[in-house]
Amino acid sequence: MGKTIRLTMAQAVAHFLKAQMTVVDGRKVPIFAGVWAIFGHGNVAGMGEALYQVRGELPTLRAHNEQGMAHAAIAFAKASFRQRVMACTTSIGPGALNMVTAAGVAHVNRLPVLFLPGDVFANRIPDPVLQQIEDFGDGTVSVNDAFRCVSRYFDRITRPEQIIPALKRAMQVLTDPVDCGPVTLSLCQDVQAEAYDYPASLFAEKVWTQRRPRPDSGELAAAIETLRKAEKPLIIAGGGVLYSQATAELKAFAGLHGIPVAVTQAGKSALPDDHPLCMGSIGVTGTSAANAFAEEADVILAVGTRMQDFTTGSWALFKHDGLKMIGLNTVAFDAAKHDSQPLVADAREALTLLSEALGGWKAPASMEAAAKARKTAWMAAANSATAPTNAALPSDAQVIGAVQRTIGGENSVLVCAAGGLPGELHKLWQARKPGGYHMEYGFSCMGYEIAGALGVKLARPEADVVVMVGDGSYMMMNSELSTSIMLGRKLTVVVLDNRGYGCINRLQMGTGGANFNNLLKDAMIEAMPDIDFRAHAESMGAVAVKVSSIADLETAIQQSKGNDRTSVIVIDTDPLVTTQEGGHWWDVAVPEVSPRAEVNKAREAYVKARSAQSLG
């Protein structure tokens, strides 16, 4: 029998995590950058004591909100291109459930994070304990079962030795390009404190490297044949390009073969926006240039994207009758969507092999000429939308222009998540380098922005991390402003106050609905709130200012560069104005019958638009 070490189950978790390593830019580093922890009765005695023992090697970070700290962990992984991860531990009950929304964010976006929520007593003697939810028909259920549908791997640890296979399986999922996503190990609180003679080999250093599956020869040959026949090809670049670190290969492939590139929300920054073949965003929030190519494309090479409805215009964007789509993805589930020719492989490997096989083949010269003309026309429209203004209430686009001009350089990372800003930013923000655009739009989770930016700053401490957030999202979650100050991680936060949920109000109007319950002025409230976001941010330790014009906004951003801590700049904006150029129809079901004439008119337009959808 080999050497053993007697530890509690929680101590075993902590010692295992600190022994896991990876290689980033040729340098071996711990794969876990730290553990976010909010302690309660379900984890303070077990995981709390264990983390204290390894605090010099595995940092424990304190947050103010469980969902917020989980968003920070997820954003850290995204900003690290999935090469490094973080863990999160909470007590049972509300502490655990607060992380379920964040688990949904990680699951949708295929991002690794390790959740370690406390759980009820495995021995059940004290049941029901504080915060325990009892299922009247199933004694094995606890609130942590809510994680099952938003975890790529879930396990409940009811005996200390069960953690051995569970930890190994967790690492396999967190580092696998196909299964990658959230892992939940639900730790019964009594078992956290139970000791076991663990094999010393469990705590030996292990180095995890990125797996790069190469394509099947038959799928590769089929993709090459399809591309060679293309007359109007288009590349759609998704987040998988960034996770694969295939940006250089994408740039080389597009340039050598003369194929325009459109980017999804997750894929934006995979190719610099100023590249002549980068047509910008595609789909519902797309540029006129990208969507024009998408409508006429006869072959689409979709790289590292799950082709969701915003990308495809609810599958009504593509108009070519003979369209062939090649789905280049590590995940077969995504590669074969809508009858695509699957090319299941790592993006970097496959793009290299495709380019070698294509040799000197290029798309017709007319494609590059069209790309130049369409990009020029789009940039004129975008520059007009983002130009400075003296309007009393500027548009989101005009605020974006000010932020871009003052702090949108090579070293900046723009962070956003929900509301109207993602659409405007997808169209208008000029991403300079890979990872310079950080948008959580897979789950479009309000409240991600500030917490996510903190995670980005932890991953990229040298970057100017800029948050653009609406008043609605700010109100949902802002507590990690204080965390950023506690940790000495400076953010620049621009709060756009349109006094409600302006994006959904516009959607409500667009589907024929009456203005109702979105803008504060249209809600059934007794008193109109007048929230002083500047004073609120200042009370949490930020340097804060409210400005009244675009010119003042630019001045405030410039001045914020000299601040020694997180800066918050507030500006009132127009809730109704949005960039009209570009874009595409999106399938939002309109009621078949209504007493409102506006709804009936919108329904007629909706039925007509649906006729363009592909059912493949």
Topology:
Blueprint: E1 4-8, H1 9-18, E2 20-24, E3 27-30, E4 32-37, H2 44-53, E5 60-62, H3 66-79, E6 85-90, H4 94-97, H5 100-108, E7 113-119, E8 153-157, H6 163-175, E9 182-188, H7 189-192, E10 195-199, E11 206-208, H8 217-228, E12 233-237, H9 239-243, H10 247-257, E13 261-263, E14 278-281, H11 288-296, E15 299-303, H12 309-312, E16 324-329, H13 332-335, E17 341-344, H14 347-358, H15 365-386, H16 396-407, E18 412-416, H17 421-428, E19 437-439, H18 448-459, E20 464-470, H19 471-476, H20 480-486, E21 492-497, H21 502-510, H22 533-539, E22 543-547, H23 550-560, E23 567-572, H24 597-610
Parallel strand pairs: 2-11, 4-5, 4-6, 6-7, 7-9, 8-9, 12-13, 12-15, 13-14, 15-16, 16-17, 18-19, 18-20, 20-21, 21-23, 22-23
Antiparallel strand pairs: 1-10, 2-3
Helix pairs in contact: 1-2, 3-5, 3-18, 8-14, 10-14, 11-15, 16-17, 16-23
Can I get a quick summary?
By secondary structure, this protein is an alpha/beta fold. It is built from 24 helices and 23 strands. It has a 6-stranded parallel sheet, sandwiched between helices. A 6-stranded parallel sheet has the order 14-13-12-15-16-17, sandwiched between helices. Strands 19-18-20-21-23-22 form a 6-stranded parallel sheet, with helices on both faces.
Structure description:
Helix 12 links the parallel strand 15 and strand 16. The chain has three domains: 205 residues, Thiamin diphosphate (ThDP)-binding fold, Pyr/PP domains (Rossmann fold), CATH 3.40.50; 161 residues, TPP-binding domain (Rossmann fold, 3-Layer(aba) Sandwich); 186 residues, Rossmann fold, CATH 3.40.50. A six-stranded parallel β-sheet has the order 5-4-6-7-9-8, with helices on both faces. It has a six-stranded parallel β-sheet with strand order 14-13-12-15-16-17, sandwiched between helices. Strands 19-18-20-21-23-22 form a six-stranded parallel β-sheet, sandwiched between helices. It contains 24 helices and 23 strands. With 616 residues, it is an alpha/beta fold.
